[in-house]
Amino acid sequence: MSETLRPAPNRWRVLALWLAAITMVATAGVLLAPSHPTPDASHGAEPVELGVELHVPVVAARAVPNLAGLPEASTFGTVPTAPLDETAAEVPDGQLVHPTKPVPVFDQPGGAAIAVLPTTQLGSDTWVPVIAEEPGWVQVLLPSRPNGSTGWLSTQDNTLTIRSTSDWIVIDRAAFRLTLYRGHQQIGTWSVGVGTAAAPTPTGRTFVLASMTDATQKFSPVIFPLGIHSTTYSTYGGGPGTTGIHGWPTTDVFGRPSSDGCIRVPADALATLTNPADPVPIGTPVLIR
Questions:
Q1: What secondary structure does DSSP assign to 215-277, as a single string?
Q2: 59 and 137 in contact (C-beta within 8 Å)?
Q3: Is 36 among the catalytic positions?
Q4: Which residues does UniProt mark as catalytic (predicted)?
Q5: Which helix (DSSP H) or strand (DSSP E) does residue 24 occupy?
Q6: Phi first, then psi: what are they for 31, rounded to 5°?
Q7: Which residues, 6+ apart, have CB-to-CB distance to 256 below 8 Å?
Q8: Any idea what DSSP says for residue 4?
Q9: What is the DSSP string of 86-131?
């Protein structure tokens, strides 16, 4: 497995702050150097150790008095001003967050509120993957349109629950293959059906948004909606056009373009993903390429 598939979250903003702080301290050390001679260790004088503790300031979140006035960051919603994912070819490291109550989503740390993230999605608790961190903040993938939407959540109160998963899924459209990993171990790989040229499966990194059953359909006992949408259809049967992973009653759809954008998987793949002893958790990162 390529090491580029499983990097740590992007922390370039934090690194830049640290480098700036280090540069300021180094410059101050030159400008404020003592006028007396430096002790000479060769003549028995003990060297002086100057410890400098650096702190990156925490940017406070703006108060948002009216969450109801914000668009919902759900699979039914659109957040037109959401920052787009800039590293869509990398798999998040598995850190997930869940809002214990609806929370505002910001365009940057300390920035403007652009949406509200609900506590549940399609009957499952909302768990979204972390893709970057700053002191007091996490950047997460959002399940709303447009595809690749992200946002920043404040960690400065007790509104977020944090956990991690070692599971991650790769869907290779050209090879018609879905592979489930647990850490660096491949759990299983299966031939699958993907979208046709007229209705392709969207690419990028996303996540398992929910686990649901639907009594109105007969093609799959369980459906895994993802945090990504069809780029061809605005709706599937009246829904929001959410791309999903699900089963199919016949085997002729596997190993070829055969769907309207969803990923059709064989029964043994679905059984592994829903294994009661160790199911794939909600929020599991998914890379579609």
A1: TT-SS-S-EEEEEEE-SS-S-STTS--EEEEEE-S-STTTTSEEESSSEEE-HHHHHHHT-TT
A2: yes
A3: no
A4: 246 (proton donor/acceptor), 262 (nucleophile)
A5: helix 12-31
A6: -70, -30
A7: 176, 193
A8: G
A9: S-TTS---SEEEEESS-EEEESSTT--EEEEE-SEETTEE--EEEE
Residue 128 · residue 143 · CB < 8 Å: yes
Which pLDDT value is given to residue 257?
98
Q: Which residues of the chain have pLDDT under 50?
A: 1-12, 14-50
Strand pairing category for 257-259 and 150-154: unpaired
Burial class, 185, CB count within 10 angstroms (exposed 0-12 / middle 13-18 / buried 19+) = exposed
Which residues pair with residue 245 across a beta bridge?
224, 263
| Alpha-carbon separation of residue 35 from 31, 48, 51, 103, 117 (angstroms) | 11, 15, 19, 54, 57
User: For this structure, is 262 an active site residue?
Assistant: yes
> Residue 153: beta bridge partners?
138
Looking at residue 79, what DSSP letter applies?
-
Q: Residue 91 to residues 127, 176, 287: CA-CA distances in angstroms? A: 16, 19, 6
Q: State the pLDDT at residue 87.
A: 87
Residue 19 identity (one-letter amino acid): L
Which listed residue (43, 184, 229, 262) is catalytic? 262
CA distance 41 to 102: 61
CB 264 within 8 A of CB 177: no
pLDDT at 52: 53
Supply the pTM of this predicted model: 0.82
Structure tokens at 215: 């009594």
